[in-house]
Amino acid sequence: xxxxxxxxxxxxxxxxxxxxxxxxxxxxxxxxxxxxxxxxxxxxxxxxxxxxxxxxxxxxxxxxxxxxxxxxxxxxxxxxxxxxxxxxxxxxxxxxxxxxxxxxxxxxxxxxxxxxxxxxxxxxxxxxxxxxxxxxxxxxxxxx
Length: 144
Fold this sequence. Notes:
- The chain is of the alpha+beta class.
- It is built from three helices and six strands.
């Protein structure tokens, strides 16, 4: 056996170990993500009617720099209960069911574990605070 053949054989074996370590690391990472989703710490975004995140009934919101803090309403379905009750794009959601909300992740975690038949929102619009109740649909998920 030539020196080249022995060298190439060792190089191939040396490449196999890092590849195996990468597979193990990826398997562990996927397992951790699945455990976090199962435990409720990470809630994947859902898609309903083409919306990127159907967390709220009939509208979408995201973390922003609202003067009042909280989330800002970014889009609204015109035929939704939320639109009928007067929510507008640009409104700030400062609390859900009386709990202060600062980020979209906080809202996701809370709503993922919330089983109440209605959703109570504290909104700020033009420096006026008001409370609004929205019903869940028959499936128990937020949305109308």
